[in-house]
Amino acid sequence: MSFAPFKTLTSQTLVLRTQNIDTDQIIPARFLTTTSREGLGKLAFNDWRYDADGKENNHPLNSDTAKACQILVTGHNFGCGSSREHAPWALMDYGLRAVISSEIADIFHTNSLKNGFLPIVIEASAHEWLLDNPGVDVTIDLETCEVRLPKNGGTYPFKTDPFSRHCLLAGQDELDYLLGQDAAIAKYEARNV
Question: I want to staple 11 with a disulfide (CB 3.0 to 4.6 A). Which of 32, 70, 123, 147 is the partner?
């Protein structure tokens, strides 16, 4: 599954201060029956965004401003809970490309990178500043692995593994990468028959 290459992204931030947002809050289990990514954005944070009749409520996630943001900033321990690729799928279909927090659950972190969504753990002072200043323009530079805050707010490094970084920069998942190695695989197999 290809996705748009991720090199440098500048966007306003969408801030959810809540800590321990789990994958069932991101995409409730009752919506995991599909293998299609399309349409999952309208189900992202479903139980927060809709009333019992399925109508949009006044949650900030329903605002036009929020829907235009590509960078989510959340409280500590984002993406905890059960493993589900539907969570990054839903966030991407909603329009997001990255999440910044002070801690991101390992399984969500891995699922995100495999699906073109960038999870970023940033130092506590920068994270607190982002939580306290919603809607600011932030730049994420994956080539240098830096987050740049506005108004001389500083530049903060983040870590991502080299293979995931390569795939995100190229806009490819692991299968796309392997398929791109077809000639090298054929050459190896020809030598070792």
Answer: 70
Q: Which residues, other chains included, contact 30 with Cβ-Cβ below 8 Å and sequence gap of 6+?
A: none
Angle at 43 between CA 39 and CA 45, to 5 degrees: 145
Structural domain boundaries in the chain: 8-191
Average pLDDT, rounded, for the chain: 92
DSSP 120-177: EE--HHHHHHHHHSTT-EEEEETTTTEEE-STT--EEE----HHHHHHHHHT--HHHH
Residue 1: per-residue pLDDT? 59
pLDDT in tens, 116-144: 999 999 999 999 999 999 999 999 999 99
Q: How far is CA 170 from CA 1, 28, 107, in A?
A: 12, 31, 23
DSSP 8-class letter at 82: S
What is the model's pLDDT at position 106?
Answer: 96
The answer to whether the CB of 2 falls within 8 A of the CB of 114 is: no
Tens-digit pLDDT profile for residues 146-186: 999 998 789 999 999 999 999 999 998 777 777 777 788 88
CB 116 within 8 A of CB 92: yes
Q: Decide yes or no: CATH 3.30.70.270 for domain 8-191.
A: no
β strands within 23-149, DSSP E: 71-74, 98-101, 118-121, 137-141, 146-148
